[in-house]
Amino acid sequence: MMKAALIGAGSRGFYAYGSYALQYPHEIQFIAVAEPNKEKREKFAETHNIPENMRFEDWTELLEKEQLCEALLICSPDRNHFKPVMKAIEKGYSILLEKPMSPVPHETLKIAEAASKHNTLLTVCHVMRYAPFYQALKEVIDQKAIGEIVSIQWNENVGYFHQAHSFVRGNWRNSGESSPMILQKSCHDMDMLAWLIGKECQSVSSYGSLSYFKKENAPEGSTYRCLDGCKVEKECPYSAAKWYLHDRDVWPANVISADSSIESRLKAIQEGPYGRCVYHCDNDVVDHQVVNLLFDNDVTVAFTMTAFTKETFRNFKIMGTKGEINGNDAKNELEINYFSGKKEMIHPETVDGGHMGADTSIMADFIHSVKQKSNSSLTSAIVSAQSHMIAYAAEESRVTGAIVSLKEYVENLKEIKEEVL
């Protein structure tokens, strides 16, 4: 059984990865946790029977000790990844690092270089590569079922409520505190596209903005908080009362407070960030964005991320020289239309767990890699840093309006990194 420590006992650390140890206690045991929020720290520690002397308020306390165990999971906020991961590499841990590696491009390059230098197993949580649905898609593409890929249309439908919860009210609402939307949410997509196409990205152009979730669009009669006497709360689709005070088959009720009782949730929306009106928050990340990508061999991609969808899912059309693939991950459906007239429908196997079973699959893969003493993985630091560069370049293009050459962008970053060093 692998023993592990956790830095960051928030939603991803507690539910996505921590829950794996409860389901498969013969595979992994958490023996230490570092989390500044006392309520979250104690909840995780008690859930996993972690002794008092292995509960740390700060990651520095954990990493100043001699190596405690084989593996370390780093699930702290985006801007708190760089220092602990660099220290953990020095200490000799095998590392599972939540994405993004860092909101700062040259820090991402330094992480990748350090992992390579120390032969460290560093798996980045680009979890979608591990989902059975996308594994099946990759297999179809690699078999050349539709010939050579020529172009792709790819949509990330964020969902109106997911946007409101995570990117307007929540932890990833403000790029200065976390990351730009294209990096925090859509680095999955940039990573999958690079993986599926299997070629180098040459250039990027992008447009997008925060168009709707802002003060000037607040309805007449709205208030700073949903429960402050808002006159339109009853009909508002974003009402905090509707989403957080009722039992729903969604994750938010477990996120806004450690205690999921009605009393605790009510207090959270009366006093905390999730009770704010979506038009009166300090959010600045975009609510829609398009990215155009040019890969080697003239492969082109048109990517769209938008908040303004009813459901949260990805759908796409991959067009090749011998046919096309239409995919919808919510339906677990791949439709292959061959130019010969043949049609094939694939419904890949499913696995329990978040992100279409990907959270379960990445944990199983990571544990296996640690046991095998391997220093490589499907989403290694080097591989993930490369797809991160596409996301950084897309944000650069969106902000400046310029078409960004990936090669030139990375070369400039390396110069910056050397200056910082």
Automatic annotation (TrEMBL):
Q: Sorted alphabetically, which Pfam families does this protein's record hold? A: GFO_IDH_MocA, GFO_IDH_MocA_C
User: InterPro entries from the xrefs?
Assistant: Gfo/Idh/MocA-like_OxRdtase_C (IPR004104), Gfo/Idh/MocA-like_OxRdtase_N (IPR000683), Gfo/Idh/MocA_Oxidoreductases (IPR051450), NAD(P)-bd_dom_sf (IPR036291)
Q: Which Gene3D superfamilies match?
A: Dihydrodipicolinate Reductase, domain 2 (3.30.360.10), NAD(P)-binding Rossmann-like Domain (3.40.50.720)
Superkingdom? Bacteria
* GO molecular function term, any single one: nucleotide binding
User: Where in the numbering of this chain does the Gfo/Idh/MocA-like oxidoreductase C-terminal domain appear?
Assistant: 138-402
Q: Where is the Gfo/Idh/MocA-like oxidoreductase N-terminal domain?
A: 3-125
- State the similarity comment: Belongs to the Gfo/Idh/MocA family.
Q: What is this protein called?
A: Oxidoreductase
Q: To which species is this protein native?
A: Gottfriedia solisilvae
